Amino acid sequence: MSAADQHYLQLIHKVLSKTITGSELDELYRLMAEEESRIDLYLFITQNKKISEDQTISKETRYERSREKFMSSSVSQGLLIAQAREPYHQVRKYRFSIAAIVILFILAVGASYIYMHPTSTDIITLISAKGERKFYRLKDGTEIWLNSESKLEYNKSYGHSNRDVKLSGEAYFNVAKNKKLPFHVDSYGNRIEVLGTQFNVRAYPEEERMETALIEGKVNLQIKDNGKYRQYIMQPGDKIGVTHMMSNAMRINKNHPSTSTENTKVIIDLKKATSKDGEQLDMLWTKNKLVFQNDPLELMTKKMERWYNKTIKIENENLMNESFTGVFEEKTCTDLLDLLIKTGVNLHYTEKQDSILIY
Predict the structure, then answer these.
(1) Closest by CA position to 39, among listed 66, 20, 64, 73
(2) With the CA atoms of 186, 267, 172 and 62 taken in that order, what torsion angle do they form, in degrees rounded to the nearest 10?
(3) How much of the chain, in percent, has pLDDT values that exceed 90?
(4) Which of 4-13, 44-53, 126-135 has the lowest mean pLDDT?
(5) How many C-beta atoms lie closer than 10 Å to residue 107's C-beta?
(6) For the chain, how long is the longest CA-to-CA vector?
(7) What are the helix (H) ranges across 17-132?
(8) Distances in Å between the alpha carbon of 43 and those of 12, 61, 156?
């Protein structure tokens, strides 16, 4: 075993024991990019480690980084994205046999970290916390950006018998083409079907609204309305908003993912997506640009909370009807608020630790 392979096994050990540092994680990704078999080794080891259901370790994901680290890493983006993939019906050529992998791993990190039992759940969960924007590349080549406080779920059979995902939050998808297996996104009771395209979906549960903006290709948006689906074929540049007016009982339970959207009043808004310099505003968040599109202050501050990992409270109700439009790249929440004040917005604020009061 080479020194590089031994070092790689030690880094995997640190991932499993949750002791890996940021620089070591960068090194792990670099070693993955150098050799395909190392990714297979990582998947084999993590898939055979018994993991509880409440953990959210992505075992099928090819690559995951926060955008800042992803763009600044010495590993080039093209190296990973353009990497050729072997057809799944072919037998992979591994550097190591399965038995050798197990033996080497035991020698490197100890037998206590390997359990030859299947995981207790077939659902894989990808999460981006507040203040984060993460990039994922699934095993079929589909690329996904997850915005702050978002969650994507899919089954271990993804890429083999289906390409179905479930989204809560906001995500940008660049879907790999596969005519035999359409890609489906389920979100807020609605369903999007594509073969290969680029689109953005925003569906935070507390906003009671789902927005789909198509950048490239064609999608079939299926909107659930009173138990039936209404279909809309979207073309590039189209944007559709779906608002579910919830009953009082549903509002009480809206924080529960299992809450049904049956019997809600559905309002559908069809329009063209707004662009700037040839780019749709809906996908600029993937480039670290915070966008407001005639957003009321309540929605704007919710976006800022997720973006900057802050808690924001609005004390002045007269500001609630104020709406905001703009593209911002300010590094801190207070920098953005200061800029708004300089442009003539009549608001004041105080900051205390991670909380901001607007009055």
Answers:
(1) 64
(2) -10
(3) 49
(4) 44-53
(5) 12
(6) 68
(7) 22-34, 36-47, 67-72, 77-81, 98-109
(8) 10, 9, 12
Residue with tokens 């040839």: 278
Is 89 a residue whose pLDDT tops 90? no
Kindly tell me the sign of the dihedral angle through the C-alpha atoms of 85, 68, 307, 213.
negative
The residue written with tokens 């339970």 in the block is 253
Share of the chain above pLDDT 70, in %: 72
Q: Cite the beta strand spans of 183-316 per DSSP E.
A: 183-187, 190-194, 198-203, 209-216, 219-225, 228-234, 238-245, 265-272, 275-276, 279-280, 290-296, 311-314
95 or 172, higher pLDDT: 172
Name residue 107's amino acid: L
Task: Give 238-267 pLDDT, tens digit per residue.
Answer: 999 999 765 433 333 444 444 444 556 789
Report which of 166, 160, 221, 233 is spatially closest to residue 192, judged by C-alpha positions: 221
Query: What's the DSSP call for residue 128?
Result: E
Q: What is the rounded distance in angstroms from the CA atom of residue 299 to the CA atom of residue 207?
A: 8
- Per-residue pLDDT, 37: 72
Average pLDDT over every residue of 33-45: 72
Type and span of the H or E element at 302: helix 297-308
Query: Is the CB of residue 36 less than 8 Å from the CB of residue 92?
Result: no
- The answer to whether the beta carbons of residues 3 and 20 sit under 8 Å apart is no
What residues contact 272, with CB distance under 8 A and at least 6 apart? 237, 238, 239
C-alpha–C-alpha distance, residues 359 and 352, integer Å: 14
> Amino acid identity of 185?
V
Cα–Cα dist 217/102, whole Å: 44
Instruction: Tell me the three state secondary structure of residue 336.
Output: helix
pLDDT at residue number 117: 37
- Model-level pTM greater than 0.70? no
The token pair at 91 is: 């037998």
Checking DSSP bridges between strand 355-358 and strand 349-352, what pairing results, if any?
antiparallel
Per-residue pLDDT tens digits for 159-186: 999 999 999 999 999 999 998 999 999 9
